[in-house]
Amino acid sequence: MEEKLFQFIQDVVGRVTGKKGLVYDTDFVKDLGLNSFDIMNIVCAFEDHFDVEIPNRDVWQLHQVKDVIDYMIKQGMTEV
Amino acid sequence: MIENANQIWLYLSDAKDGRSTEDRLRRAVHQCCETKHHIKIVGSEEQIKIARTDRGKPYLADYPQIHVSVSHSGAWCVCAVAETPVGVDIQEHVRMEGESIEEASQRFRRMAHRFFHPIEAAFVDEESYYRFFGVWAARESYVKYTGKGIDASFSEFCVIPEKKDRQPELGEMSKANIWQAEGVSFWETRYQNDYTLCVCAKTSNLFIDKMEMI
Hints:
By secondary structure, chain A is mainly alpha-helical. Chain A is built from four helices and no strands. Chain A is globular and about 30 Å long. Chain B is an alpha+beta fold. Chain B is 28% helix and 28% strand. Chain B is built from four helices and eleven strands. The chains are: A mainly alpha, B alpha+beta. Chain A binds chain B through residues 15-16, 18, 33, 35-37, 40-41, 44, 47, 53, 55-57, 59-60, and chain B through 15, 71-73, 91, 94, 96-97, 107, 110-111, 114-115, 136, 140, 149-152, 154.
């Protein structure tokens, strides 16, 4: 399950920002250098795929790839 | 003290030159104080302490009269230095790989309705691509000015005036737009064809000096 979600995140981040080479500990801001615009684009891609609305307050708690995986499992966003 | 409280100094640097954000801010503050002779900094550039609020807004621990803001996108990082609280944002006009301007515009319209104030979203609907980046940069500069960042209230404020005849022509080349909204002033311009740059500060007559490279 985690591997499948990791692959999905990697695909979305790559498609939206062009960034590659993610690992579980990758920090979106510190390691990939993403800014707010990039993050919001990724959020929109997730929302479009899962047909959900992710609250802004949740978005800024998700620093690393593994945080997003945990969040997706918790929210039932696992049909990738 | 800085001579003109309305004046904002902008310092541009190569975002991929390996320097940390803190180093860039130190350089910008030092450069401003050295070359403008407005504020005296005690000690060397390395001794300037950059602190962060719990929301991540940078400030100078030893010089509360100097305000700073920083933004990066694509190839550029921009630092703002002022005597008044300030927010700055630079945003490259980026699209997804293989995405046309029309496709990106459609996506940006959806993003505007998702994240922007309804008045801003309607403004973007009329001419999506460059207006979207103009509004985005203005909103980012505003949340950097307030220090709140993007939080649950992100859709509640509006950075463009409500009256249509006072709306800025966001996204025009070779022209700086200056307008007031939310009790603050905005200064917005295109940079190098494919970047939008916006500054926000609580002054009645916001003045931007020529950008310097650091």
